[in-house]
Amino acid sequence: MNSEESKVESRPVFKCSSFINANKPANKKRAWKSLKQIISTERSLPWPEDHIHYSSINAPPSFLPAEKFSDLSGLPAPYTDPQTRLRFANKEEYSTLLTLPMDITAGYLALRGASSIVG
Amino acid sequence: MEGNKRGRLDSKQHHDRKLYLSKRPRGGSPGPSSSKRKECSNALVLDNGGFTIKIGYSKDNNITVLPNHIMKAKSERKRFFIADQIEDCRDLSGLYYLTPHDHGYISKFDVQKNVWDYTFNKFPADDMPVIVTQPIFNFKHIQEYMDEIFFEEYDVKTLYRTNSTDLTYYQYITTKKGQHTSCIIVDSGYSFTHIVPYVNGKKYTNGIIRMDIGGKLLTNYLKDILSYRQLHVMEETYVINQLKEDTCYMALDFKKEMQTAKTTNDIVKNYVLPDFHNIRRGYVHEGEVDSQLAENFQILRINNERISVPEVLMKPSIIPGIEQAGLAQCIAKSIAKCPTKYRQQMADNIILVGGNTNFPGFKERVETETRMFLPSHHRMTVFKPEEPIKYSVLGGKSFSKDPQFRSMCVKKHEYEEHGSNYTYKKFNEFVEIEEEPPKKTEEAPFSYLDHWKKEGVDIFQKNVMKEDPSPDVQFILEGDDIEQYDGKYVTIEFEYEKKQPPKVEIPPPPIKPPDISQLKVIKKKMIVPNSPLVLNSNATVVRASDLQPIRAPTKVYRPVFRTKPENQKITQIISINGATPMTSGPLIIPSTSGGKTVSLGSAQLLNNAVIIPQNMFGSKNLTLQFRPIFMQGNNIIITKKQ
Question: The pTM is what?
Answer without folding.
Answer: 0.64
